[in-house]
Amino acid sequence: MTDATAGGPREVPPEQLHLLTEFVGRSRWFGGKGRPFQVVGVRRLGRLPACADDGPEVAIDLATVGFEDAQEGSGESGQDYYQLPLAFYTEPQDRLEHAFVGHFEDSDFGVRYVYDALHDRLAMGCWLRSFVDQPEGPLRFHRIPGHELDLDTHSTLFSGEQSNSSVAFGEDSLLKVFRRITPGANPDVSIHEVLTRAGSDHVAALFGWVDTPALRQEGQTEDQVLTLAMLQQFLRTASDGWDLALASIRNLYAEADLHADEVGGDFAGEAARLGEALASVHRTLAEEFPTEDRTADQLAELAEGMRRRLDAAVEVVEGLAPHADRVRGVFDALAGLDGVQVQQVHGDLHLGQTLRTVRGWKIVDFEGEPAKPLAERLLPDSPWRDVAGMLRSFDYAPHVVERSWGDDEGAQQRAYRATEWATRNKRAFLDAYVGRELTPAEQTLLDAYVADKAVYETVYETRNRPTWVGIPLEAVARIGES
Ligand SMILES: Nc1ncnc2c1ncn2[C@@H]1O[C@H](COP(=O)(O)OP(=O)(O)O)[C@@H](O)[C@H]1O
Ligand SMILES: [Mg+2]
User: Fold this and answer.
1) pLDDT digits (tens, 9 = 90+) for 102-155
2) Which of 54, 249, 331, 334 has the fewest CB atoms within 10 Å, counting from its CB?
3) Distance between CA atoms of residues 198 and 361, nearest Å
4) Quick check: 354 pLDDT over 60?
5) At what angle do helices 383-403 and 440-464 cross, to 10 degrees?
6) What is the CATH number of the domain that holds 324?
7) Whose CA is nearest to atom 26 of ligand 1?
8) Helix, strand or coil for residue 47?
9) Is any ligand 1 atom within 6 A of the Cβ of residue 174?
10) Same domain, 363 and 339
């Protein structure tokens, strides 16, 4: 089935745009919360062939979200694209009430009750079938051979705090539907594809993905691919690394007289295995993607960016200024390096992007830093950026648990033990990652990335969770001490 209107903006009555605006605004994946916005346009990327009696018509729309506060030249985007997979029914569906978008006339289907398709087993069954049937049309379902998809499964939408939407098909596969769409190949797919073909043990194998060549942007003559979704191995026995770390710390606090290395929930063995897993992933990425050497000039430029972010942070974060000189010293050391190797990295690594399974640690979500443009996220970078992200996460976890206790006479003891847990697990992770002493240049790089990240966190917490700003601020205070 082909769809002549694919990719083109559609005429949509204002009432319908209004309903879509409300739907987007109440969806947890919407990244523009807090800013005034409206859905200003919709295009139909394509339709899926019907695949069930009494089933819905299924289409994928792309909503253009316009922000009313966008200022020219501010760097803040004035428009974002969001993917809306929709299910269209002639009768209201009580079972989908929580996913209701609206009752309106669609130019392809007529007057319909419209629902978010990700909540609908019938609609998601059509998605999964399409990986097998490979329908013609603007929506392209790509598959990597080697795994037979289980089509007799029911879909379940994940309920976590996610920026995308993930649907599990039984215990067989997981479909991650990208919500905010940036034109260009999504690194989550391209990196998973390479790691899967290379046989990496530390990622969920990629089964396939969906894309469309639909969007032509202003000023461009070529259609740019839009990556819409990724189908991968469902890690059945997975526990979230962040949750496991928090459990270990609660365990430590429950055993008032014991130290971090004495309690049942000690995490250091896990931290070490995670370090080995990351080292293995980095090695494979370095083999499979191009690597480069950063020149002295490029490193000086990198350090300059960090200095600029520090200067801006000092303006915003109370209590940062007294530490700024020491942090600048760390960035100066970075600027003095030469010939540092860079490669494809994860780019947004923390404990929440790791899963422990019975077959070892897996690393997920290779989309990179969501705020950066896609092309930039595929550029080589230093693996120490990922290591720094993990170290910051090992520092956050115990202090988050510590803060959930309140201010009683045990507070000082808990603060001491939080630091003890962080130090122990950072050490275990780093030792296993490197497997030897760090060279002075490696230490310099790592210190700079940790400092840059902690500075970023002080700004983030000041704006979003002011009572937590002490967590990164204490980390900044320790920088350059040892
Ligand atoms: N292959 C998988 N199997 C099982 N659970 C997974 C898998 N991949 C991711 N998850 C779970 O889904 C959550 C969100 O996945 P992630 O790829 O990080 O999505 P997002 O881009 O929305 O952050 C992860 O934190 C993890 O708990
Ligand atoms: Mg994630």
Assistant:
1) 999 999 999 999 999 999 999 999 999 999 999 999 999 999 999 999 999 999
2) 54
3) 17
4) yes
5) 50
6) 3.90.1200.10
7) 240
8) strand
9) yes
10) yes
201 part of a folded domain: yes
| Count of structural domains within the chain | 2
Give the relative orientation of helices 440-464 and 470-478 as an angle to the nearest 10 degrees: 150
Single residue among 218, 233, 248 that ends a domain in this structure: 233
DSSP string, 401-458: HHHTS-SSTTHHHHHHHHHHHHHHHHHHHHHHHHSSPPPHHHHHHHHHHHHHHHHHHH
- Return the minimum-mean-pLDDT range out of 181-185, 255-259, 384-388, 465-469: 255-259
**Which residues have a Cβ under 8 Å from the Cβ of 226 and sit 6 or more positions away?**
45, 62, 181, 183, 211, 212, 213, 214, 215
Please indicate, yes or no, whether residues 358 and 283 belong to a single structural domain of this protein: yes
Category of 347 on φ-ψ map: left (φ > 0), alpha (ψ -120 to 50) or beta: left
- The string of pLDDT tens digits covering residues 298-308 is 999 999 999 99
Does residue 254 share a domain with residue 220? no
Considering the domain architecture, whether residues 372 and 349 belong to the same structural domain is answered as yes
Does pLDDT of 364 surpass 90? Answer: yes
For the chain, what is the largest distance between any 2 Cα atoms, rounded to a whole number of angstroms? Answer: 70
Residue 370 Cα to ligand 2 midpoint, Å, equals 10
Q: Which ligand is nearest to the CA of 176?
A: 1
322 and 414 assigned to the same domain: yes
Nearest ligand 1 atom to alpha carbon 365: 17
CB of residue 204 inside a 6 A radius of ligand 1: yes
From the CA of 352, give the closest atom in ligand 1. 25
Identify the domain containing residue 452 by its residue range. Answer: 239-478
Please say which residue of 233, 264, 285 terminates a domain: 233
Residues 442 and 410 reside in one and the same domain: yes
Measured CA to CA, the distance from residue 234 to residue 171 in angstroms comes to 6
- Centre of ligand 2 to C-alpha 134, Å, is 28
> Given this model, what pLDDT does residue 183 score?
87
